[in-house]
Amino acid sequence: MSRSKRDKPFSGNLTTPQPGWLSSDEADSEKSSESLVKLSEIHLPSQQPRHYFDEHALKQLADSISQHGILQPLLVRPLEKGGYELVAGERRYRAATEVGLTEVPVVVKELADEAAWQLALIENLQREDLNPVEETEGILQLLAFKLEMPVEEISPLLHRLQKAPKDEALRTANNVIVKKEANETESSNNVIGKSKRRKNSPANNVTSEREEAPSSELVLIEAVFRDLGLMTWESFVNNRLPLLNLPQDITEALRQGKIAYTKAKAIAQIKDENQRTALLKEALAQQLSLSQIKEKIGSLQSKPKSEIPEVPERLKVAYQKLKKTRIWENPKKCKQIETLLTKLEALLEETS
After folding, report:
1. Most buried residue among 9, 190, 284, 334 by CB atoms closer than 10 A?
2. pTM score of the predicted model
3. What is the DSSP string of 114-178?
4. For residues 250 and 268, is the Cβ–Cβ distance under 8 A?
């Protein structure tokens, strides 16, 4: 479902485009940049961080705009060929188009491509109606921007970094044991020099040797998640990245805000596609709780294999075999097939 209104992403150090794209000092000096421009002069960027718009929410915004106008101006940047490119405020832009406004309030700022893209990403991540899938995709895009890497490489990088500390901790533990044993052996062989050697012994250098500087990527990643204020990067890897590998129907339900991601992950565990689809529909229609969903999953998994419907698949396999066989050359067997087919047709007539 959508995030809580109490959540405040980017409440830390990152500059946000909401509701003031400028600091308080800059706002006073740039108030004159706010103006009315023709809606036809505003163009959507070729690359946009947002893909799904809830029709009901958009209709509500359009109704509000028709009554009260646009209360928060759109952020645009001038184009060399004339007109403006929308940076932030696509929902307001779409709602204004639906209402039929000819002019909208805007704040015009000279922005480079990278700055415009970052502002668009941040505004998207600040939405209260943001669903977990969009949030995950937005964070990956922001990390790709910060790390100057293709977005496809971010997930593998996060997984590598998550595994690295465990390997490093193991190596460090082994080094500590070796250094401790070496120090104890040296001290026992030279009791007189014990006090002097202890000050400069390898054991006292273990801490400094263990404190290896983290990778530049990790420093940047930690900074982004710290400023997001929503979760740690480790939690993101464990709980959010798996959402991008869910079946298509579950992903769409998540993207439309119809189901919580904890419920979606539970339903996705069902291997049988028919059972999974049926449970998803039931969960959405009856607003099942997570505990109810888990109970139903347990019931499905506990069924003996013989109770699981396999008739459609068996019919399909039997038909394929029937086409390849020479059974028709045997009059007796052909007669048996005709009898079975007559019974099947009669059964279908009863149920139709």
Report:
1. 9
2. 0.56
3. HHHHHHHHHHHHT-TT--HHHHHHHHHHHHHHHHTS-GGGHHHHHHHHHHHHHHHHHHHHHHHHH
4. yes
Cβ neighbours of 167 (radius 10 Å): 9
The CATH number of 24-130, from 2.60.40.3410, 3.30.420.10, 3.30.70.1110, 3.90.1530.30, is 3.90.1530.30
**Is the separation of the CB atoms in 206 and 175 below 8 Å?**
yes
Place 20 in a pLDDT band, splitting at 50, 70 and 90: very low
Residue 27 pLDDT class (50, 70, 90 cuts)? very low
Domain ranges of the chain: 24-130, 152-221, 247-309, 313-351
Residue whose pair of structure tokens reads 């004339």 in the numeric block: 82
pLDDT recorded at residue 291: 92
DSSP track, 67-84: HH--SSPEEEEE-TTSSE
Helices in 212-330 by DSSP H: which ranges?
A: 216-228, 233-235, 248-255, 261-267, 273-286, 290-302, 311-324
Contact between 2 and 257 under an 8 Å Cβ cutoff? The reply is yes
Closest alpha carbon to 34 in 106, 119, 85? 106
Three-state secondary structure call for residue 256: coil
C-alpha distances out from residue 262 to 126, 243, 265, 290, 291, Å: 21, 10, 5, 7, 11
Q: Name the 3-class secondary structure at 13.
A: coil
